[in-house]
Structure formats: C-alpha cells, structure tokens
Amino acid sequence: MPMLFGNRSITTSSTVLATRNLVTGEPNINGEFAVNATCRDIVISQRDPLPLETLSKENSDVFNKINNIAKTLEKYFKKPQIIDYIYENGEVYVIQSNNAQLTAPGRFRAAKDMVDSGIITKAESLNNFEPADVAQLLAPSLTNAEPTPFCKGIPSGKACVVGKVCLTNESVLEAAKKGESPIFFKKSIASTDFEALMASSAVVTNIGTDYSFVSAVTRLFRKTAAIGCEGLIVDLENNVVKCGSNTLNVGDKVTVTGTGSVLVDEQELFNPEKHEDEFAKEVLTWADEVRQDKINVFTIADTSSEVQKAVEIGSDGVGTLSLEPFFEGDDRRFVTDVIDPTNEEGVNSFETHLTSKLKEIFSSIGSKAITIRLFDPELTSYLDKPMELAKEIGVLRAQKDRDGDNFASQEELDSKIAELDSMKKAHRANPAIGSRSIRLLVARPELMNAELKSILNAAKEARGSGADPHTRILIPYVSDYREVSNLMKQFEALSLEIGEKAKIGIEIDTPRACLTTAKLAELTDFLIFSVPLLTNVTFALDRTEAEKQLLETYKEKKLLTNVYNGVQASVSELMKICVQEAKQTKTECEIGLFSEEFHNPKVISHYSELGINSFICKAPAVPVARLCAAKTLIESQ
C-alpha cells in the first residue's frame, strides 16, 4: 500500500505553495495549508484549506522554514516553483517541487525580478519564454468598461474570448469541430477532461485554485479561464448555468476576460496596437540587446500612423512601405494622369501628391530605416473598366456628330480615347504574372522617373525639416539584372540632380532571380525575399484562390499540405542558392525576408542558418519576432 504523507495525525499539516504570485509574478510566497490532509486533498479541493498567511500567524517557525526552502528551490531550479510540504512532529518535509505556471503578465514580472536578484541571467530568462507569452500582450481586450460579471474566478490566459456556453465534453468537441467557439462550463476539471479542455476557447469552473490541475494546464497552454467561480452551479439536467439570481442557457453567448470575469452576451473587443506592460517592455529590450547588429526585425506599414506604430512597438524600422495605398479612392486619378500622354501636368501632379505623402512618412520614422517598395500592380487596376469607357466615348462621338463644329467636349473625348488606348496596351489576362512591378516601370519610364524623384525629394524635404531618414528603395518582381541596370541609371542621375541618396534593393519573387543573384547583387545594396510571392511562383499558385479550395482538396487526398505554412523545402532551396551567390559576390550584402511565420522560433532559426539577417513581418508580430530572433541567437551560441 502506497504511503501518503499528511494525514498521520490531527497535528500533521500539508502545504501547497508557489514561490511567487501565480497571477502577478510578485516575489512573495502564496499558498494554502490544511491540517490532517494530504497535499492532493488541497489540489483537488477535497478539503477547505486555509491561506498561508494563517500559518505564518499560527506557527511562524514552520512558515519561516518553508519560506527559506522555497527561496532555495527557486534559486536551484531557476524558475518559479510550486512546492508540496508536509509538517509533522516538528519537521518539514518537501514532497515535490515543480515548475510553476504563471499568467503572461506574471511571467514577465517574475523574469524581471529573478534577473535583478541574480537568480538567472537575461539570456536564461529569454529562453524561458515562449512566443505565445509575447503574443498575449496584444491579445483581444474589452473595448468598453467591464460590466457587472455573471461570475468571476482566477484568471489564466490574457485574451478576452467570446463563445457559446457548453456543459459537456461531447458538446465542446462537436462545437470545436464545426469551427465554433465553445466556452466549457464545468463544476471541476479533471485529467479525463483534457481533450475537451484543449478544444475549448475558454474554461469556467466552480471548483479550482491556483494550484489545481485546470490552473496549471490553462496557464501552460495560455488558455483563457475563470477558475473557482464562487456560487457557480452547472445544472446538467436542465442544461443551464446559474450564479446567484442569474441564469445562462446552453448555447448562450458569453465573454470570458483575461481577468477571470465571465460576462453575459458578446462584448465588443479590440486588438490593442501596443502593450503597456512595463515588465514585458524590459524583457524585450533584453532581446534587442542580444540581436543588436546581428538580426534586424522590421515591420510593414502603409500610412504615417502605421510608421509611428512601427517605432513604438520596437521594430528596427519599416521593411516595406508600398506606394499603392497612396493612390486609392479619388487619388487613383494621379496614376491615370501620369500615363495620359495628353495630360502635360500629369507627371507634376503625381510627384506633388506622392512627395507630400512620403514627406509625412519620413518625418514619422525618425532616424530608423525605411524601405519604399516601388509601384507593383498593373495599370489596369487604376483605369476605368473598358466597357464603361467605350460607352462614354460612344456617347461623346454621337454628341460630336450631332453638334458638329459646336461640339464643346473635344478635350474630354481625346482624353478618354487616350485612356482607352493605354488600357488596351496595359491589359493582361493574368495580372499576377503580367506587366507589373519592374516590368511596368520599364514599359512606363515616366512612372519610374516620377516615383524615384518623389521619394528623393520627399526625403530631402523631410531632412530639411529636422528628420534623418535612412531611405531604401525596393524593386519588386525582378527576374533579370538588365531590368535593374536600366533603373539604376535613371536613379543615379536623379540622385545627383536632387542631392539625396538612398540604398537600392531587389525583392526576390521569382526562381530566376534566385538563380541569377550573382549579377543582381553587384548592382544593389540589399536583397529581400517575399516568401508568399516566391511560393506563389514556385508552385504556380495564386494564394487567394488556392486556399479557397485547391489546397484543401490536395490535403484531403494527401497530395500536398498548405504550402504557405512553415518552411517549404523547394522554396528554401532556391533561397539557399540565392544567399550563397549573393554572399560570394558581395560579402556585406544585407539579405532580408518577409514572412507571416515569425511566431515560430524554428522558422527564424532556419532562415538565419541560410544567412538571412533581417526579418520583416506585420506589426502585431514584431514583439514575437524580437523574442524569437534573440532565442535563435542564444541557442546557437
């Protein structure tokens, strides 16, 4: 028969404690104790334990002993601990000690304190974090003030979650399979509920403490929860949940917050653009110290507010700023003006508009690097539909025939005829592989000249106003070095004329560019891979269309997984060839990469091993990428 510590006599007491507050991470022991009970009784809530503060008053000697042991074990294991103790006949026995699972804010607070105390180094601390810890900093939050909760418990994950009430394991699994968001309400959670717990979007229980199974699991997997909600009754017979005078039915919408509150109905949520956790900010500065001058993390941006956000969230600058957003809505006319041969002021209006927009951008970036991506889409996306334009021309010609010499709209007719001619020349059946990007600029030198001139003038004007932009220009969709050579001649002449410099880079989007990098690297300062675009061309797919049906069909037939997730061997091999050729040609050539996979440290590690030292991602992923980049460097040392 196994020996059970803790119930030998009425004077024996058991204690379960954490070396830190599991919610906030504060450095003071927290726990519960019970007389004539086992530690397991406390964990599974079979006994009503007393708070550890009571033990400190009733038996200070025992309290001081376990407090000293707790500090010793935390220093030894270098992580916050949950420890089971038994006090018997004047002696304290340690039954077990395990790594504690804290909330995301608690992890950052504990890390800062443990580094300051010399228990662990900054590098060791960073290695203890997972990407999900950082991702939770920007998790969905309540838009408005929190209303009176239906019930409230101990929190776990930081995200606010909206879903429907489910009371059984089967209903949770069924709802999750349908793509719904099940909120699992149960009196208590045991290990047999693990599958349903993991399938749920959030968990709400009546029984549970900081030290129970459900707390450990939900915090381990960063899952939102409200644990140990006082007064919560789960009525399986009537398919309802009660708390006080309030009742919820199965299927009702609820919102579970990151503070452990359960709110009736679907509450409005928003994704914060930046976090205010001071401890997390400091931890991420440690990550920046590790990757400084080794790995850069940039973000993409389209507006001056997004550029400002890039600075605030700790990116090293803007890795890609596209010009297309500056020509939306009524501003589309600037594009049609610049290619209209009858519009002599078209180029000037285009340059004035773009220079104004970019000056605002350069003024927002401070002294960080910013990469302007040249015009990418086909012109047809900016021109009116051919049929509509042809009808308008037909109407004007009919009016001309009717009015003869009195026709007053000849200028408008000529302009529309010229626009239709331009459209016919620009039209392609496949816009994904048509006259776009560098090909468009070669065919339309007036557009290329206007873009380059606007960028340089904007940078010069911003510099004159006190800014210090580090300007980089990115040429997308290059497949031949002669395309770049043609643009470089125009750029160098303009740079000399305007008196403003910028670095020139190439976006590697095609297999041919990967295989001819040696010549491309000679002409440019940096290279950037666009993993989604390179994957498109390598697999001859269009992502938008492929993910709607084709890839799902291939997955069902076990022919191909989603090629846009993770690292694809064929795409990676092309990149490897490209990097090797670039480094052989120009050892100091900076090589960057845009991807949506930087939440995974293994992805950054893989690309770093290829020789890529700059990573570009969307703004919400920047904090995660900063951590992952640092972890990659630490693990490689």
UniProtKB/TrEMBL annotation:
<dbReference type="GO" id="GO:0016301">
    <property type="term" value="F:kinase activity"/>
</dbReference>
<keyword id="KW-0670">Pyruvate</keyword>
<dbReference type="InterPro" id="IPR010121">
    <property type="entry name" value="Pyruvate_phosphate_dikinase"/>
</dbReference>
<dbReference type="InterPro" id="IPR036637">
    <property type="entry name" value="Phosphohistidine_dom_sf"/>
</dbReference>
<dbReference type="InterPro" id="IPR000121">
    <property type="entry name" value="PEP_util_C"/>
</dbReference>
<dbReference type="GO" id="GO:0050242">
    <property type="term" value="F:pyruvate, phosphate dikinase activity"/>
</dbReference>
<feature type="domain" description="PEP-utilising enzyme C-terminal">
    <location>
        <begin position="284"/>
        <end position="631"/>
    </location>
</feature>
<dbReference type="Pfam" id="PF02896">
    <property type="entry name" value="PEP-utilizers_C"/>
</dbReference>
<dbReference type="InterPro" id="IPR015813">
    <property type="entry name" value="Pyrv/PenolPyrv_kinase-like_dom"/>
</dbReference>
<protein>
    <submittedName>
        <fullName>Pyruvate phosphate dikinase</fullName>
    </submittedName>
</protein>
<dbReference type="InterPro" id="IPR040442">
    <property type="entry name" value="Pyrv_kinase-like_dom_sf"/>
</dbReference>
